[in-house]
Each structure stands twice: as C-alpha cells, then as structure tokens.
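Format notes (please read before filing issues)

Several people have asked whether sequences and structure tokens are stored in separate files. They are not. Every record keeps both together, in the order shown below: the sequence lines, then the token lines. Line labels are part of the format and must not be stripped during preprocessing.
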Amino acid sequence: MRLLIYVALAMVVLMSNSASALNNACDMDYVQLQGASIVVEPTGVDDTLNLQCAADEAVGQAIQKIKLSKGSFWISSLTIAEFNGTLSGVSKDKTELTIIDQSVDCQSQESGGSLPSAIAFIRGSPRLQNITISADFICAEPGDVTPALVSFSGTPTGTEDCSDDVVFGVIDRVTLNTSVPESIGVIAIPTGYALGGCKQTLLGTLKLIAPNSQGFEEAFFPVCGAAHR
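Then the structure lines:
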C-alpha cells in the first residue's frame, strides 16, 4: 500500500511539473492553456496577433493542439512553420475564420520567396480541421502569383538553401468560401515552382478529407503527392 501511495504521489508531481512547464506568452484574456491544448477565443475584431502567438507557442513548446472556440475570427495572414499538430475549430458550422479584405501583403510574400497566402503552413505535419474559412479580395496589392487561402509549402526560395522540403498536410472537414474565383482555396507546392529558384521539390502528402468549397475556379491545387478520400 505504501509503495502504491508513493507511485501515485510521483505521478501527481510529474503531471504538475509538466503543466507548470508550459508558458502562456499570449493575451490571456483570449488565449488559454487548457491541459495539453491552446484554446483561442475570438475578440470580435482582428484576431491575427492572438492566433499567430498561439501558433508560435504551440511550435515552441511542442503543443500539438490549437483549438478555436465557437464564434467568428478575423485575420490578415498567419505563418505557421514546423507545426506538428492540429489547428481545429469546433465544427464547420460553429467556427468561422474570415480573411480581412485586402489585408495580406502578397507582394512582400512573393519578394521574400514565399507563396502569397493568408494561412501558410511551412513544412511539419499540420492538420486543419472543423472550420469554415471565407475570403474575398485577399491581397492588399496583387502580385504575379495567384493567392491562396491556405498553403502548404517549404522554406522560401531565392536563397542558397536548396534542400528538399517535406510537409504532411491534412485538410479535414473544412469549408472554403470566396466570391473571387481567381483565388485558390488550398495549394501545396514547392515555393520555387511558382517563384523560381532551386526550391523545386516538395515531398510528402496532402490529404483532403470531406472538403467543401464554393466560388473557386480551382479550390485545391496540389503538386506534391496528394491523397484525397
């Protein structure tokens, strides 16, 4: 019996230390650590800083779940690099994320060697699920490359780094809406494919599970090996 008590106490101490090791550097009025997840609440205005902070903390602390609560979120653009986890809403009907009109600096993204997009996943194993994403005119100033609501790609092109990039992306029960047919819903390509340079290879997969889209001429544009079910 004494041994069992010691074991139980040790487990409590370990769990306490693990929980206390996680830090919340974000706005705690809207971003909370709940167990092994980061939970984000909408502000009613621009939620970009809170969502970017949540993503950065998730990557930095190896937190695998970012949960968006019920409600409407508004963002300009997010860059999420090396994330191995899930960014999830409650459901497609209960969590909506809207890209603010003309809020994405597409020209700067292109000149920096990155794909013009509102939500950019760079390498890693990111999963986006249970959410509706809506956008109309994404770019503040249009560039040469068609912008996307969501991109899965690698590190920027136009540098001396010519190594292959690897990304294992998943789009799971996501609805994409636009009134601008020329934009792309989800794209998965190496940065060099669209922008030139040596970053011409993107390894991995893009899995599309029960996706839905409205208003796009081309909602899904995968160049890397893709699986759709």
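For reference, the curators noted about this record: The mean pLDDT is 89. DSSP finds four helices and 16 strands in the chain.
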